[in-house]
Amino acid sequence: MFLSDMCVGNKAIIKKLTAKPDIKRRLLDLGLIEGTKVECVLKSPFNDPLAYLIRGTVIAIRKSDSQKIEVELL
Question: Candidates 2.30.30.90, 2.60.40.1180, 3.40.50.300, 3.10.129.10; correct CATH number of 3-73?
């Protein structure tokens, strides 16, 4: 499952980032590291961007980027 597939209120653990190196570095800098817990807190009307609670901070991520983050639901 990918981060973009989560519904509001779902919690998951990040398993793998499959993005290109430049985007992957940016996602890692935001705290999206393997093993990190993440919760989907908001989907905009057109599902882009999506907001996630990561390490105590809400971060908005474009759907195209969140489709490159594999997660496992809790």
Answer: 2.30.30.90
